[in-house]
Amino acid sequence: MQRRRLDSADIRRWAAELGFALAGVARAVSVPETAWYQRWVEAGFAGEMKYLTDHRAAIRSDPRRLLPSAQTIVCLGILYNTPAPLTLQDGAYRGWISRYAWGDDYHDLIRARLSQLAERMRAAYGDFDYRVCVDTAPLLERSYARLAGLGWIGKNTCLINQGQGSWFLLGEILTSLEIQPDTPPPDRCGTCQRCVYSCPTQAIVPRGDGYWTIDSRRCISYLTIELRNEIPPARRPAMGTHLFGCDICQDVCPWNRRAPDSAEPAFAPREGLLGPDLEEMARLTPQEFRVRFGGTPVERARYRGFLRNVAIAMGNARQEKFRPLLVPMAQSEDAVVAEAAHWALAQLDAVRYLDQEETNG
Ligand code: SF4
Ligand code: SF4
Q1: Ligand 1: distance of its center to the CA of 220 in Å?
Q2: Which domain, by its residues, includes 153?
């Protein structure tokens, strides 16, 4: 009997039934981006993200280090876009949380769907080895997603699909199956540099080879989520009122103008996560933080990191009404929160001084 030649058509259909908007297949081999990734790490662009620079950096060089029998990688994308506003810059002095964090944490959901898809493939193809991965696995997942035909990597370093934009979360199934790989699409950024010019911290920088990368040390997503201690003062003014992550380089991307919405109820915005009131956030106790953000990606910032971000946002809002909240924060037992509150009070003092100067004429 002639052996059936596997391709991604069936997988794409099953994936769609499980809620994945994008699916494709790439070979489980080392990719040229590995060398660039190493240079990115060596340049210090990973900041303090140890999980990107420790022994796991070497694992990223070849997916067969995650699954020795791997032949192919099934790459999947699930939409998280919701019909809600772009990053608020409306002067309301509210905080801002990144779009992907408005609903439930995605890791368990994606992992479960990937396992369901893998079992469906086993039912059709017979037994094979597999391993499911979400973004916590040391895998250059955007590079494989590109090779699997899901989209190209934009100057903002997001995976962009021509018809569906970039509001995607990615997942992978490493398999020991031989499946016909898909073809990467062309890069459609062209001469556009909107994301580069819109980034408030100039975090999108040229790589020197015609491509662009993110210097994480400047990126608001890194500063508000990954950086555990003090945020360098020089970086703070450009952070605006971002409390957790930043979407600006995706908000401005023309390929997101007609991006479809996710049908996934888990990603619908929870109450109180869209533009939360800064005064209310500053009053949250650790227990209230857990109630408000438990089960959402915001938990990753932890209470002290979140409160630090709230203090900086209040300093950037430069509203005198925040002073009564910042004064007790500046006495916090947590040195990181206290220092951020002192900085914020200094911003308010500067405004007060300028106002007095103006009055004195
Ligand atoms: S997430 Fe925000 S800070 Fe980071 S690169 Fe994009 S626009 Fe710049
Ligand atoms: S904004 Fe322009 S340059 Fe940036 S990712 Fe989108 S298309 Fe590419």
Answers
A1: 6
A2: 8-276
